Queue: 2 jobs
Job 1
Amino acid sequence: MPDPSDLIEAINRDGYRALLDRVLITEEQLGRRIAELGEQISRDYAGKTPLLVCILRGGVMFLADLMKRITTPHHVDFMAVSSYGIGARATRGQPRITLDLNTDIRDRHVLLVEDIIDSGHTIDHVLRLLQTRDPASLRVCALLNKPARREVYVPITYLGFEIPDEFVFGYGLDLDEYFRNLPFIGVVKKEYQ
Ligand code: IMP
Ligand code: MG
């Protein structure tokens, strides 16, 4: 792992190109798959006014594009979860809710919208918490799944893409808080993983 100040210097000089090994999922591929997910969700939740719950911050780009593709009436709300751990890439330790819902979810059809399921601990924690509030249903829609790193079982009903065990960034996902704005998903160079 290079010195963090070298990383920031490289980013300021060359932008994402300093860190990018290769593009894994293009903007076009994301758009096509999200349109399909939107159609499927619209069909499955017709007449149910689901509540889409975006997990901040990584899920924000995915939610924004997904909700444009959902034709059935729905509501949105937000949660934020942080993991204790060393460095932005560590997701160990007990997740902590740093922003909770404003919506009462009792008897609501809740669909969690998450960027990536990695170890599974974050979404597992959120699922357990929300289940105690008696929603009518509770499901997960994840853009990315890294099954190689799973530590706890997570039921994923809607999935964008399965990806290999490599650190990715862009389209909401960050690399030390940078690059959430990129319209594609890229793989970080080995030396920065
Ligand atoms: P989990 O609790 O291990 O499933 O971690 C989920 C969270 O870790 C995601 O919501 C992301 O914020 C972060 N994360 C996991 N893998 C990556 C990655 O490859 N790139 C960026 N963030 C990641
Ligand atoms: Mg996240």
Job 2
Amino acid sequence: MSNLHPDLARIMITVEEIQERVGELADQISEDYSGVERIYIIGVLKGAFIFLADLTRQLRVPHVVDFMALSSYGRTTVSGAVRIVMDLREPIEGQHVLIVEDIVDSGQTLSYLHNILRGRSPASLKTCALLQKERNKSDVPIDYLGFRIPDVWVVGYGLDFADKHRTLPYIAEMKK
Ligand code: IMP
Ligand code: MG
């Protein structure tokens, strides 16, 4: 694209590719949860908000939406612990919980969240992520995955770099 922002190296996943894949994920989730009273969907802020909005509007099973915000203490450190910045509104005991994440990189965030939520005794706990980086070898399985991508920094469709480029409609690779 000729008018690509100078921060960006290339468009990695187009608007059309995202929409098609999100539709497929919504179909799969709707099928797997048919018969369940409702899904308790947890969007991880900020990154997942656009993906979550598109995904949930295509679900054909009852669901409610809640949010959590997490933050890592320095992504550059090896230990890099995660903490909860904003918690859920409701207890999730007995609920069929689906975590919706933008991207799984090292897997640390998802693994932390999964542990915390499992401790709250949901009826079931599954994960959905739009993107997974190749280097990820997370212990937590991603039940619904949009795309596997190379180990580069991507922005757009909810993902940011220092809060920039979050609302681009496509997913783009940042220049190094
Ligand atoms: P992890 O704990 O290393 O898996 O990192 C997960 C979090 O880091 C994601 O939920 C994102 O918020 C952020 N992140 C990781 N890689 C990227 C990227 O390429 N672009 C934007 N955010 C990213
Ligand atoms: Mg995230």
